[in-house]
Amino acid sequence: MNGNGDTACIFSVIYKGVSMYVGDAVKVYGTHERRKRNIIGITPWGLIENHSDLIGRDVLRHYQTLGNPLSKRSSLNGLHSHFLLVDDGTLGKSGGQLDLRKKLERHVHRQRIHPSECELWTCGHVCIQVPVVCVVVEGGPPVLATVLEYVSRTPPVPVIVFEGTGRAADLLALIHKQTAVDRLDVSYLTNVH
Predict the structure, then answer these.
(1) HSE-up of residue 81 (Cα within 13 Å, Cβ side)
(2) pTM for this one?
(3) Domain residues of the chain, as ranges?
């Protein structure tokens, strides 16, 4: 990210949930020629359908992005620009990528937007760090720990929860509603589609 309008987003790389929606949105709306979009997907190697098709060094590999609906594994989201596949030795199990993703997010967040301008500025100017936002659409049990970790950081990472998408998202929305005291009224967002 060099200040020329580049953007980078880090997601799970499988073609479902947030990853699917963002990939589709980038495909439809992300064609502005001046902005380069880097969509980085991180997922466990053993969770990817037909992952052995990707093995090779310095060769071009073709990968079928249509997954088997009966499989517990998932297809890669072909709308990502980059992939980081984490091999923790497990097959068909999610979560092995979380530590790497957290470290990468922290590293990216520490970077400064327009760092050359920061060096030229004198007192009174603040260099802005790259923003990090957590988006929850559905999600399984590991999402709850991830959200807790994000909101416990200093400063906390904003978390956007899409209620009505199921599982962890709905549980987080319910907990938020049940514990809300003197919070900003955002009920006007309920009917936004």
Answers:
(1) 13
(2) 0.69
(3) 1-112, 133-183
